[in-house]
Amino acid sequence: MLKVAIVGCGKIADAHASQIQRIKGCEIVGVCDRELLMAKQLYERFPVKSYHADLSELLNQARPDVVHITTPPQSHYEIAKFCLEHGAHVYVEKPVTLFALEARSLVALASEQGLKLTVGHDDQFTHVARRMRQIVQDGYLGGAPTHMESYYCYDLIQPGYARALFGDKQHWVRRLPGRLLQNIISHGIARIAEFVTSDAPRVMAYGFVSPLLKRAQEHDIIDELRVIIADEDRATAYFTFSSQMRPSLHQFRLYGPKNGLILDHDQESLIKIRGTRFKSYTEKFVPHLDLARQHLGNLKRNVNTFLARDFHMKSGMKFLIESFYRSITEGAPLPIPYREIQLTATIMDAIFEQLVPRRTAAANSLGEPDRLPQVRQSVLEGAVRQPCRV
Amino acid sequence: MSPIHGAHGMSAAVEGDSTVAPNDPILITGATGFIGSRVARRLLDRGFRHVRCFVRPSSDVAGFEAIAGRSRDGANIEVIEGNLLSRDDCMAATRNVSVIFHLAAARGEKSFSDAFMNSVVTTRNLLEASVQHGCLRRFVSISSFAVYTNTRKSRWRLLDESSPVEKHPELRGHAYTFAKVKQDEVVKEYSDRFRIPYVIIRPGYVYGSGNEAITNRVGIGTFGIFLHLGGPNTIPFTFVDNCAEAIVLAGLKKGVDGQVFNVVDDDLPSSREFLRLYKRNVRRFRSIYLPHALSYLLCGLWEKYSSWSEEQLPPVYNRRAWHAFWKRTRYSNEKAKTLLGWTPQVPTGEGLNIYFRSCREKARHA
User: Fold this and answer.
1) Neighbour tally for B320: CB within 10 Å
2) Which residues span the domain enclosing B180?
3) Contacts of residue B120 in chain A, CB cutoff 8 Å?
4) pLDDT tens digits, residue range B108-138?
5) Is B113 close to A309, i.e. CB distance below 8 A?
6) Residue B66 sits in a domain of what CATH number?
7) What domains are there in chain A, each with its CATH number?
8) Is the pLDDT of residue A357 over 50?
């Protein structure tokens, strides 16, 4: 029986606990939150053996094999490091860390300790995302991708999150070096990182505060972002984050030398786009029939998956957790290669460096890992003191 | 702002049997909210001169200036911006306070953790800060009818303060219910441990200008068409100004420490009557009535499916929820009338007219 613990008992911890309890061969031996009441409420609602306010106590008493870290990102690095040093495998919610250097440091530590690490890029493991991956592996694109477009939008009208963020000037999201963007864009960037071959792609970012937020006197939260990512001279990618565009897309478009694919996360649909054209007027009629057939196919597949009781909103998270646990217990490959985790963090670093000047200075001064705590402190303080300007 | 206030002679000077003197500081959390703003006005109208309003930094406090302008000479509205999750902010807010009206809550929150954090952790922080200061004479905690199980069928289905509370609120499937049950528990725990005098107010469905929604006790519109579930049930309405008056009395009346009060108005309409009036006065829409036996069956089926499918559909409709929201029930406000001396000054008919007018206004500006 794999012993699992959860550190951080906020909203996302519920999703973890829900999915973990659906997986056979594991049990939640403890939950931990600095606020004991929060740990207790999770303990009361799920089959959990113990609750704690202290991480050392959790690790020493519950002795988990795996720790899920669902705290705000500011603490991911320290908690993950502490858990790895105490012999526990680690699943860290996204974004894995505040800085790419920290992500690299955690990967190195995990490897050194003979332990496993993964990050909560669970959107990469929904039914449709897995289907897309299989089709790409089967060669449908006709070669390596030449261009990608990743849309990851966020509707700030959603009452819960927006009310918490805008109502609290000290909200932890505001204190992230990349603010709102850092907490949200990982999923959309990870989709691109999966297909980027260079370890240091060129990143050009442009961000601004939307008129809506300006009207609400929110001048510090960048909620519109456009990014071009150049994978040397092989491939390019556009990334779009928007709080204002409608529909509020969560899409990934992948184009190869022969064909393309469009994945829609919200609708759980995958559409194949043929690279060749029909002759003359037939191009204006036949493709529509093909698209209609594909949409009906998506509908049928979704209905069947629902009827099979396998269409949970967090099905991707369950698959990712199960795969991660298999990599621990059976030595199966990691669900997310370390390279992809680090590359996602590297691209995000590059984006925020262009949006937040102070962060650039601190990032440039990064040298050896043992200077990390001072640099973190410097950047975090700066993020609190200084408004985020483009 | 609703012009109702004062129109029915509710305002009264501070009476002799009050827990606090006119110059004692009084704290209101959630003071810019639907009920909180009315509580603030009532306290000022009663002659209290030091009302401290705790608000989120994003709250619109312009309304307080108007309230202060209407109040009696020498009244001081102190606005403190902060977050009840911060212990420091709670310490600052509760300094020298004699009565706390704790109205801030996580309404409409779907996440259990967030609802818990914004109801229970915040309440605990306020209570702990009050213990530190040692000058609190009354903590008025706002709970809800949602905390009752309502499974008991004796006494002609009467629901009153002696009715049992959910022992497993996590199984109700509603974050708000879970948070409110736990909030009540933390208030009682701190009272037992530190002798904090408290009163718990459990309003029914608070309606009025500022809350134009149709309560789910009448029905739900989730599935594209309005499913009318209440039918002949009495809906436990309380008009916002009536509710605010009960809350104020709960903070001021001597000799009611440790009591729980349900707040519902008199002459309550049935769900069917309300829906008919709403359609006549606000807008027409299609609704389908589901008889109680059918709605109970559907809630049971949803509950079973949710469990069988490992919550592919969340268990928001279940038999516990049916008992709490859609079972035919009678309500009593006798305890509040007897011990608090409360009477609902705005008659239900008049309250509904104000509510319908407000609904029409909102629809016009939508």
Assistant:
1) 22
2) 26-213+237-265+330-347
3) 37, 41
4) 678 999 999 999 999 999 999 999 999 999 9
5) no
6) 3.40.50.720
7) 142-312+337-390 (3.30.360)
8) yes
